[in-house]
Amino acid sequence: MNRFVENIAEDDNIDSKNLDKTNSFLKGTPKNEFINSIVKMQEKNVLTKYRDNTNKTNSYDCTNLEDEKNNEGIKKALETSGTIKNVDLRGFDPDFSKSLYDAVTDAKKDFPDLRISYCGTIQNQVQGIKETISKEYEYELRSLNGNKYSDKLYKQIADNYADDMIKEFGLDEIDGVFAWSLNMPNGKYKEYNGIAINECFASDNDKFNDHKTKEVQAKHKPVGCDTSRATVDHELGHEIDRLVDARNDTYINNLYNEMKENGNSREVLSEYSETSVKEFVAEAYSEYRNNPKPRDYSLKVYERLVYLYSQRRS
């Protein structure tokens, strides 16, 4: 057990030696294995992580909404579409929400089996995970110790444990992060797997676009990818990659290695596309969706994703 348990117990005038402690909450998901499974890919200011799929529901057409820029209407449209199970648009600029809807709608047309558990702000996503950890850990502490200690003490210990785990998982490192695609292997957290945007950018679409314009000008991001829509498409690219296992496809890897060997990623796709084959796929998909004249690599990657998806369904 971490040192904060003893400190809290002493503050509450309780002998910590008498408090049974448990590490069984994360049993079956060792910390190192968990951390390694959440692969960090720094996109200058962007942390990318990875997730699994969820189940299917009925479709819903956002064009039937009276106000497409209404966050509640877009939330309903996205959840009813079956692509995203839990949409939390608290803190979103309505223009950003509309970009999100457009990106998901286009992805669903070509990849109808795409399933995402969660979409919202990073802050709300991390808070949800933290609350899950805290509640489960408090339950285990109470199971071991009964009513020997105060509710306040149990909650303090559980909350501090959750804070500690969030830090160990790297989910507290959100300063300067634009967005990420999160994959939590533990079933307790899978409801939060998916796409999240930092609230400080999600709340101001113009501010977000200004940052992305600079990245495109520096050739860090692909041509045409200077909007919030393009960033959502990038994260959707990660989701589609996992859906069809593009990262392990020989053809995709040959394209990626060819680009790296030629040493001209900034000219043919983006500087960031060199980071890994996963980022290569996400960058190419984003350019395909946002560049009116997508270049060779983005065309080839997109066509391969569609092919891999057709093979998956056959």
Can you count the helices?
A: 13
Widest sheet, order of strands? 3-4-6-5
Strand content: 5-15%
Helix share, percent: 40-55%
Helix/sheet category: alpha/beta
Low-confidence stretches: 1-68
Number of strands: 6
- What's the story with the biggest beta sheet? 4 strands, mixed
What features would you describe in this structure?
The chain is α/β, with parallel strands linked by helices and 314 residues long. It has a domain at 218-309. 54% of the residues lie in helices and 7% in strands. The protein has 13 helices and six strands. The chain has helices at residues 3-11, 31-37, 71-81, 94-110, 122-145, 151-168, 199-202, 205-217, 228-244, 250-262, 265-268, 277-290, 296-313; strands spanning 41-42, 47-48, 84-87, 116-121, 179-182, 194-197. The strands form two sheets. It has a four-stranded mixed beta sheet. β1 and β2 form a beta hairpin.
Keywords for this entry:
314 residues, alpha/beta, four-stranded mixed β-sheet, two-stranded antiparallel ribbon, 13 helices, elongated
